[in-house]
Write a structure and sequence with these properties.
α4 crosses α5, α8 packs antiparallel against α9 and α12 crosses α13. The protein is globular, with a radius of gyration of 31 Å. 38% of the residues lie in helices and 21% in strands. The longest helix has 44 residues. The strands form four sheets. It has a six-stranded mixed sheet with strand order 5-6-7-3-8-9, with helices on both faces. A five-stranded parallel sheet has the order 14-15-16-12-17, sandwiched between helices. A three-stranded antiparallel sheet has the order 2-1-4, with no helix packed on it. With 517 residues, the protein is α/β, with parallel strands linked by helices.
Length: 517
């Protein structure tokens, strides 16, 4: 057991307008199972890179333990070989027998170490890299988003595996995973950083109570400020009126007033003006306290959506549908049957490789033959079909791709290409907690979560009969996930989506369609 001490840490990327961290100090224990929570772009991955010496910074980070980072970078040349051939390149001193022992805990046979890495599924690749990570001793492990792109079964396996380990920082936006695996949280708030005992739900309940208390105290401060301002105005008016009586008086009406009254009135006015000054100081103090109360409050804005209403009740029909890629030995899936009616929110569920994205692309392709919608690709997929897969005519679709690698260039150019109103688009991004300073950056410099928000904002701004979202929440922070859940429950758009976040799927879906690989 040892400490990691961060003292007066300040860091900004070269050429950046803003500091990611500024004069930050805290301590954590290397024996903890630490969950790392914060908004997209707040610096979670950056902090992990700072711990491993990836960037130069101001301040000090001291630790007696060595750090190791997940995911390891596997280059294109390595991907063509089995993982057993490059274990030592991933982690110095890595012993194969230790990796095999860890794979057994992950429910995997050692034979996946001897197959070309690129032929393995996302889940198998992730398990190998996790097994390598935990094969050492006395390292403090930095785990960055281990469940992205994993199906539900693989997520469960990773969750159970991590829950049996300790001595790590886990960056994840999966609430179910965080609840199962951590005993402390490191939270990047809006203005502060805090380290607390407990899992995600414990922190979230405490945060809601703190936020409610801060709002109640803020109301009290606002009322007190209002009272003080009214009293200051009245006292100032009395002082001005009293001051006006110093010079000149009617000897008939004020026969009892002598010349000695003038100093008395001046002294009385001075006392009143002093009271006004004291009240103004109290007002400033109350305002300072009020601003301090709300500095870490997460004020999520309700998002808006404008779904179109199609003239037909049934928008998509899939019946006894079978899909197989040309030259493939086996079909992707067989005997899939479901319908999408207006107002349905249909979740496609199944393990990696069962054809969820392929089915989505076929629905987009079918719709493309009946509409000029830019979201629907016109190029046909090289597949063999059997059964029925059809869409209503004139269907407008808003599509979010799971891939973000194509996002490059500026936001104005992106809006022009997609015929989006730039001011409305930026407004939605602001509601998703995009900092204004990000608007002048190129999208290739965004974090993965910020890139996802660009695609989601474009989809929300596009009126559509059917929204199709393929893993929309990968890398998206917890607060934004809750915003989107609330939006979908309020506006009830017709939605077909793939999402492995259990809580999101259970909250949003009105129907679940399970595909078998």
């Amino acid at each position: 057991m040892s400490q990691v001490n961060v003292t007066n840490l300040t860091f900004a990327y070269e050429g950046s307008f803003d500091n990611i961290f500024e004069d930050v100090s805290f301590s954590i224990d290397t024996d903890w199972k630490l969950g790392f929570i914060g908004r997209n772009g707040k610096g979670k991955t950056t902090f992990l890179r700072l711990l491993t010496g990836g960037y130069a910074y101001q301040g000090a980070i001291s630790a007696s333990a060595a750090f190791d980072y997940f995911p390891y970078a596997v280059n294109e040349a390595q991907r063509k070989f089995p993982a057993s051939a490059f274990l030592e390149e991933l982690k110095a001193g890595c012993e194969e027998w230790r990796v095999i022992c860890e794979l057994a805990q992950l429910g995997e046979d050692a034979e996946i170490l001897y197959r070309p890495f690129e032929t393995l599924s996302f889940g198998e690749q992730t398990k190998i890299l996790l097994a390598v990570l935990f094969s050492g001793e006395n390292d403090f492990l930095l785990i960055d988003e281990p469940t992205n792109h994993l199906d539900q079964d693989a997520r469960e396996t990773v969750k159970n595996y991590l829950s049996s380990k300790k001595g790590f920082i886990l960056v994840s936006h999966d609430r179910d995973l965080l609840d199962a695996c951590i005993d402390h949280v490191l939270v990047l708030n809006r203005q502060t950083i805090e380290v607390l005992s407990g899992n995600f739900s414990t922190w979230w309940e405490n945060k809601q109570r703190k936020d409610q208390f801060a709002l109640a105290e803020n109301e009290k401060h606002l009322k007190e400020i209002g009272k003080l301002r009214n009293a200051a105005r009245r006292t100032a008016a009395w002082a001005d009126k009293n001051e006006a009586t110093k010079i000149g008086f009617d000897p008939v009406k004020e026969h009892d007033r002598g010349k000695g009254m003038r100093p008395y009135i001046g002294a009385k006015t001075k006392k009143m003006q002093s009271r006004v000054t004291q009240m103004k100081q109290r007002i400033e103090h109350e305002i300072e306290e009020k601003e301090g109360l709300l500095q870490d409050l997460e004020k999520t804005v309700d998002l808006r959506l404008s779904p179109l209403s199609h003239h037909k009740e049934r928008l998509v029909t899939v019946r006894d549908y079978r899909l197989q890629y040309v030259n493939a030995q086996h079909p992707v899936f067989t005997d899939v049957t479901f319908e999408i009616h207006r107002g349905d929110r249909v979740a496609l569920h199944g393990e990696n490789g069962c054809g969820k994205s392929s089915l989505i692309k076929m629905i987009l392709q079918k719709a493309a033959s009946k509409t000029t919608d830019a979201a629907c690709p016109a190029s046909p997929m090289p597949v063999l079909e059997k059964g029925v897969c059809e869409t209503a005519s004139g269907l407008t679709i808003s599509y979010v791709n799971q891939d973000t690698s194509f996002l490059t260039g500026s936001l104005p150019a992106f809006c022009n290409k997609r015929n989006l109103d730039q001011s409305l688009f930026c407004s939605i991004l602001r509601q998703l907690d995009f900092e204004r300073v990000q608007f002048v950056k190129n999208m290739e410099d965004y974090s993965e979560g910020q890139k996802k928000k660009v695609l989601l904002a474009a989809s929300l701004l596009t009126p559509a009969h059917l929204y199709i979202w393929d893993e929309p929440l990968n890398y998206i922070d917890i607060f934004s996930r809750m915003q989107i859940e609330k939006l979908l429950l309020k506006y009830e758009p017709t939605l077909l989506f793939v999402e492995h976040d259990v809580r999101f799927r259970e909250t949003v879906a009105t129907k679940v369609v399970t595909l078998q690989a």
